[in-house]
Amino acid sequence: MRFSLSTLSLATLAIFSSPINAAPHAVDELSWDKAYTKARALVDQMTLDQKVGMVTGVGWSAKNCVGNTYPIHDPYFPSLCLQDGPLGIRFSDNTTAGVAGITAAASFDKDLIYKRGQYMGEESYGKGVNFQLGPSVDIYRSPYAGRGWEGFGEDPYLQGVAGSLTAKGIQSQGVIATGKHYILNNQELNRTSSSSHADERALHEIYVWPYARMVEAGIGSMMCSYNRVDGDYACENDHTINQILKGELGFKGLIMSDWSAHHSTVKSALAGLDMSMPGDITFESGTSWWGSNLTQAVKDGQIPEDRVTDMSVRIAAAWYKMRQDEGFPKSTLESFHRNEAPEVVVSDDHAKIVREIGAASVVLLKNEDNILPLNQDISHLAIIGSDAGPNLDGMNSCPDRGCDKGTLAVGWGSGSVDFPYLVTPKEGIEARVDDSVEVSYTGDDYDIDAVSELAKDADVAIVFSNADSGEQYITVDGNEGDRRNLTLWGNGDNLIQAVADSNENTIVVIHAVGPVLMPWIDHPNIKAVVWPGLPGQESGNSLADVLFGDVNPSGRLPYSIAKKEEDYNVRISPDDEINYLEGLHVGYKHFDAQGIEPLFEFGFGLSYTTFEYSNLKVDGDKDRVTATISIRNTGEVDGAEVAQLYLGFPESANEPPKLLRGFEKVFLKAGKQEKVQFELSKTDLSIWQEGEWIVPQGEYKIYVGASSRDIRQSATLSL
Ligand SMILES: *[C@@H]1O[C@H](CO)[C@@H](O)[C@H](O)[C@H]1NC(C)=O
Ligand SMILES: *[C@@H]1O[C@H](CO)[C@@H](O)[C@H](O)[C@H]1NC(C)=O
Ligand SMILES: *[C@@H]1O[C@H](CO)[C@@H](O)[C@H](O)[C@H]1NC(C)=O
Ligand SMILES: *[C@@H]1O[C@H](CO)[C@@H](O)[C@H](O)[C@H]1NC(C)=O
C-alpha cells in the first residue's frame, strides 16, 4: 500500500485546527542510501568517545524520556529521546490514550490502522520524541501471554500488515518507529532468564515474518528482547541479529536493547547490537556495559572500531531518514523530572480517530432475534457491572494501569499510557439515550440479589465484565503479567449468569486482553455478546455507536476463542527452556489441523447485515497470484465486510491447512456489490526450507470467506 505525500499533508492539515497545537508535520522519508551518505559523512568526523556516547544511554530516569542518548557537540548530534510505547506516549499528558494493538488488529482495517500510527507519530513528534517504542509484533502464541494485547494477535500475516502500516504511519510524521520485541519473547514468566527454542522454519514463518514486513516498509529501529534464544540472550545473539535481521532481511536501521536486556560489552557488540538502553547495567546503577567499557574494549582490540562506527552510522541514518536533522522539536516530556517545559498539547482531535477505530474494532459474537442494534422503544435499560463504570480511585490511580478497577480500556505495564479522560460504557450509553429512557446501574459485582432485582425490571439488561493482563513487573490479583487463568475476573461468570437468569433480553459486553471462557454462552436469555477489546479513552462512545446502530459492527477476532482451556496447545512454560514444540501450529492453525471446533474462530465477527460472495477468480504464477471475488450486501443496512483470503499449500509443503494471506475491509451500502481483489506476492506463496524461501511446486487452494472457518468460495491453482 502506498500513500502519496499530498494525501498525507491534506489529512494532517485537516486534523490541525486549534492554534495551541504543534504545527502540522508530514515527512517525506529519505531513502536509506541517501540517509547513509549523510550519516557516514557525519560519523566520519567523530572520535571514538563521541561514537560511544551516541550508542550508550545515559541511564534510567537520568533525564525526561525513558531512554536518552548522550549529546555530541562537535560535530553536532543531539541527545535522542526514546519513549514508550506501542499505543501512545507513556508518562505524558495532553496526549491520546487510544485503542491497544490487539484492538486495532480487530478492526482488520488497513486505513484505520495506518491513521492510528499517523496520529501517534504526530503526538510523538509534537512532544519531541525521536523514537516511539512500538509497534509490538509479539505473536499471541498463548492466550495466557501477559503482553499479547500490545501486538496484533496470533497470525503473522496480520501482524506483518498491521506492524508495517503502524510503522509507516508513525514515520510519516518524522518519528522513528521501533519494532519489538525481537524475538521469541512470548511470555512474561522468567522472561529475563528463559531460553526460547523454535525450529528455523517456525522462527522464520511465524516470528520473523512481521519483522521482515516492517523492514520492507522502511522501519528505522528494532528492539531486542529480554529472553535468550537457543541459549544466547536476544541482545547478543549473532544468529537472530547479524544473520537473520541484518543479513537475510537486510535491515539497515539500528537495534536497541530492551531496558536492561543488555548483558555484555563485547559479545553484544559483535552480535550486532547498536544501542544500549537505558544505558545502565541495572536501573540507576551508574554502571554500563558500554560507555567507557566499550571504548576500552575497542582499545584492547576486542571489538573493531568499525563495528562502533557502524552502530553510530545506523543511528544517524535512521535520524536522517526521518529528517530529524530539520528542526526536530526538543523533548518536552516530564516522565521523571519537571523540566519547566511549556505545556504542549498534541492530542488535538485524535479522539475522533480513537472513537472511530474503537467502534470499527467491536466484534459482535452473538446477536439473536436481532436484539442489536437496540431499538428506540426501550423504556428501561439496566447497566450492570463494575466494568461499565469508572475506577472510583481515579482513572490513573494505579501506576502503569496496574489494577483492574472500573472499566477495562487498556492492559498494564510499560505498554500502557495515562488517560487524559476515560468515557465509561455507562457514560457513553447514557449520553446516547434520550430522557424518556430510565437507566439504572449497579457496579457491585458481588451483590447478586440486588443485581437480579435490578435486571428483572428492565426491558434490556447489559452486563459487563473483563479480563486483564500486563507486564511482569506488576502483579495484579496474583497475575504476574501473564494470566493465571482464562476466566473472567472478579465475579464475572456469576454476575452474567444472575443477570441472564433474571432478564430475557440480556446483552453481555466483555472487555478483555484476549480470549476468555464463556460457560454461559448458550444461556437462552443471552441474546447478544459484544466484544470491544481494549478501546482506550473513547470506550463508552465507541460502544454506544455500535449498540445503537450508528455504526454497523465490522470487527473480527485476531485470535481464536476456544470452548475449553484444554483446546489451546500452548501454556506458559514454567521451565527455563521454552520449547516451541507446536512449530507452525499457532492459534487457528492448531485448531484446524487437530479438527478442534473453537467457540469463535479467528477472523469471526457478525454484522447487522449479511454479505454474499460470488465469482471467485484466481490466476497467477510462482511470482504472483491474483484473486478477485464479488461481495454483495444482501441485508437492509449499510455495512463493512472483512473478506479474508486463506492459502492452502500443496500437501508436500507440510503446512497447516489454511494460512491467512490477504484481507480487505469493504464498505457496502445495502444492496450494493463490489469486486474485491487480493494480490499474493512471491513471499506470500513461500515456505522456509533448508535455509531459504521457496515456492513449493503443486496444487494450491485459495479460500475466500468471512472468517477462518466460514469459507464462501474456493479455487485451486497449480504452481
Ligand atoms: C494538559 O494536561 C494538564 C495535566 O493533565 C491539564 O491540567 C491541562 O488542562 C491540559 N491542557 C489542555 C489544553 O488540555
Ligand atoms: C564495566 O563493566 C563491568 C562488568 O563487566 C561493570 O562491573 C563495570 O561497572 C563497568 N564499568 C563502568 C564504568 O560502568
Ligand atoms: C482467574 O483469575 C482472575 C484474576 O486473578 C480471578 O479474579 C478469578 O477468580 C480466577 N478464576 C478462577 C476460576 O480461579
Ligand atoms: C521460572 O519460573 C518458575 C515458576 O515460577 C520458578 O519456579 C523458577 O524459579 C523460575 N526460574 C528462574 C530462573 O527464575
UniProtKB/TrEMBL annotation:
Enzyme Commission identifier(s): 3.2.1.21
Does Transmembrane helix show up as a keyword for this record?
A: no
Enumerate the GO terms in the molecular function aspect.
beta-glucosidase activity
Q: What class of enzyme is it?
A: hydrolase
Q: Which domain of life is it from?
A: Eukaryota
SMART domains noted in UniProt: Fn3_like
Instruction: List each copy of the Fibronectin type III-like domain by range.
Output: 641-708
Pathway participation: Glycan metabolism; cellulose degradation
InterPro entries (UniProt xref) = Cellulose_deg_GH3, Fn3-like, GH, Glyco_hydro_3_AS, Glyco_hydro_3_C, Glyco_hydro_3_C_sf, Glyco_hydro_3_N, Glyco_hydro_3_N_sf
Q: Which residues form the signal peptide?
A: 1-22
Keyword Glycosyltransferase carried by entry: no
Query: Which keywords appear in this protein's UniProt record, sorted alphabetically?
Result: Carbohydrate metabolism, Cellulose degradation, Glycosidase, Hydrolase, Polysaccharide degradation, Signal
| BP-aspect Gene Ontology terms | cellulose catabolic process
Q: State the coiled-coil residue ranges.
A: none
Reactions performed catalytically: Hydrolysis of terminal, non-reducing beta-D-glucosyl residues with release of beta-D-glucose
- Protein family (similarity comment): Belongs to the glycosyl hydrolase 3 family.
- What protein does this entry describe? beta-glucosidase
Origin organism of this chain?
Answer: Lichtheimia corymbifera JMRC:FSU:9682
